[in-house]
# Entry
Amino acid sequence: MRAKKAQSPHSDAKLRLIACYLESYFPAILVNHAQDRQRITLVDGFCGGGRFTDDGSIISGTPFLFLEAVAKAERIANAGRNKPLTIDAEYHFVDSKRDHVEFLRAELIKAGYLDQLDRSIFLYNADFETVFPDICRRIEGRTKRGVGRSIFLLDQKGYSDVAFETVRKILRFSAAECTLTFAVGWLIDYLTDKPQTLKRVSPIVISEEQLREFLRFKDEQGGRYVI
Ligand SMILES: C[S@@+](CC[C@H](N)C(=O)[O-])C[C@H]1O[C@@H](n2cnc3c(N)ncnc32)[C@H](O)[C@@H]1O
# Structure
């Protein structure tokens, strides 16, 4: 797979938001100057190939945002500390498309991460929901009392690849954060009261009654906003 031309203003904004979020996250948790190690697990459940092109320039995708944010946070946290701090991060990058995963693997190697592959960086060619239980076990195993300091980014393309039950399970870890992208415009555009729609929206806990209510709103002024 070659670096894809896939940047729209929308995905630019998304990448900037994620980068800003990570930049604020680490200073907020690394406040104890006596601490010398911070364990964390970063999960990118819909990771893509890691690099895109935009008008000839190469843009880093979310796996690289994670890796670079941790390295930067460690550098910043260590400036002015007597006791050095290590961020002991483990990364799980998942994508259902084989060529995306292979492209990402090649980009990681090119960027100097070969030594970390299969040690602290794990790649999965799978549906996120399939490997989610294994990743949870891994998080439980590596943090004290299963606290599970972790960040999940679930950047699905539409709105139905992540069951809300999965988000609930993530949030049962007391120190987990989860970002889920949700294409609400698509949900509204494809809304019908056919059984296949009902089946499609059941993982995101929309009942038949709610669906009919959404359909009533859909064409009213301001209805899309309400939904
Ligand atoms: C919006 S892209 C992710 C882009 C990436 N987060 C970034 O900004 O660099 C969504 C990715 O999810 C993958 N995908 C689609 N369904 C999936 C599933 N059920 N589980 C895991 N990956 C999936 C697609 O192959 C695609 O690469």
The chain has two domains: 4-182, 183-227. The pocket of S-adenosylmethionine is lined by residues 15, 45-48, 61-62, 94-97, 100, 127-128, 155, 157, 161 (CB under 6 Å).
